[in-house]
Design goal:
The chain is mostly helical. Helix content is 53%, strand content 10%. The chain is built from 7 helices and 3 strands.
Length: 136
């Protein structure tokens, strides 16, 4: 199961739409590692901390998760369109994801940039491979 959904939130969803704030709260408490990593990368972006590539157009994480539970949380959060979209709206960024851990946050204004296109390209994905990440 991806999320720990309270009975109240489930009942609300069965009755109709659920707002982003309630959904984000559920994601935050269900997937704490993913939440903390996204929060850190967004904070790095907003504070001007440069990425692993030295670009100030985005911030990223290149440190693998500490264990399989953390890795699973990150994969679930970013593989879900609804969770990823809610995180992007909440933080006001565009998230990009490679492998099992390389998460980047871009300002919305950079989505059309060469830097963003390079990051999400097949070439970018291939260049971010290594034998130790083969089974991540």
């Amino acid at each position: 199961m991806s999320l720990d959904v309270s009975e109240d939130l489930l009942a609300k969803a069965e009755e109709g739409e659920v707002g982003d704030a309630e959904f984000i709260d559920c994601v935050k408490h269900s997937l704490p590692f993913a939440w903390e990593l996204v929060t850190k990368v967004v904070a790095d972006l907003k504070s001007g901390v440069s990425s692993s590539t030295g670009s100030t157009q985005f911030a990223d994480n290149t440190v693998p998760p500490p264990d399989e539970q953390a890795r699973g949380q990150l994969l679930r959060a970013l593989a879900s369109d609804s969770m990823r979209g809610a995180l992007e709206r909440h933080f006001g960024v565009k998230l990009a994801f490679q492998n099992c851990h390389r998460l980047a946050a871009f300002p919305p204004s950079e989505v059309d940039s060469d830097t963003y296109r390079k990051f999400i390209s097949p070439r970018g994905q291939l260049l971010n491979q290594s034998p130790e990440l083969r089974d991540c």
